[in-house]
Amino acid sequence: MNNQDTPRGFALGLTVYVLWGFLPLYMKAIAHIPPAEVIAHRALWSVPIAGLLLIVLRRTDDLRAALKSPRTIAMAALTAALISINWGIYVWSISSGHALEAALGYYINPLFSVFLGAVLLGEKLSRAQIVAIALAASAVLLLTIETGTVPIVALGLTLTWGVYAYLKKSLPVGPNQGFLLEVLLLSPIALAYLVYLWVTGQSHFMAGSMHDTWFLIGCGLVTAGPLIIYANAAKLLRLSTIGVLQYIAPTMIFLIAVFAFGEPFGGARLIAFPMIWCALVIYTGSSFRDARKAKRLRSA
After folding, report:
1. Do 31 and 95 meet the contact criterion of CB atoms below 8 Å apart?
2. Domains in the chain: how many in total?
């Protein structure tokens, strides 16, 4: 594993999180299109991009080997289902005026991953991590009490992405090959649904507005492109650096939701979001201290 940050890795990491941060503006431009249709196009148009990458990298043999393994296909089908649900929640949240909840979900996600590691892998939590998780849970509880409903978007994004990332580590194939395998498994369903929309006259693709058509085709690029960049950035950056950079995207989503989309930011949100930010400061500070301690031990 890479223990040093490189300028190229930092540039790639910064690029991918900024791209993810601007994604709500893209999704808002097609907010009038049903989320299910958008998700189908995201899966379908990701196939040629991810496929071309494997051809360029000459890693198609790995994909062929994966396609011969029923266990790998079954695991990939599960991760594909999770990522499609995650995409669906995200697209719906942007189109329906719940971008702030999406930002909250991505803020909570790293803390949920730590919690998942403790529950499923028996990883020991530090005192700082326990405090951070408790703060995040308290913020969610506050929002639930104030609004009278559970923040389903935030928790849905957190749960689906957290479990997806956990299972993805167990997938016996590289990240680029795994992503192509996932969208390949989703593409027959996506294609069948898009054909159904076309036959019943409900399709927005090639149906009058070229704006919609090009934006739907572009869904493949805005989906596969950042994931490919991230896969390369992760190899050239320390885990702690990635941990800090990952807050760029939800911060941008938060700012876009408040200042561009005009979503209300008051009441319990005015208290809950600072609680989450405080939890993340505690968590990040603890991570840096643990990394420095590990480095000193290795040196000794």
Report:
1. yes
2. 1
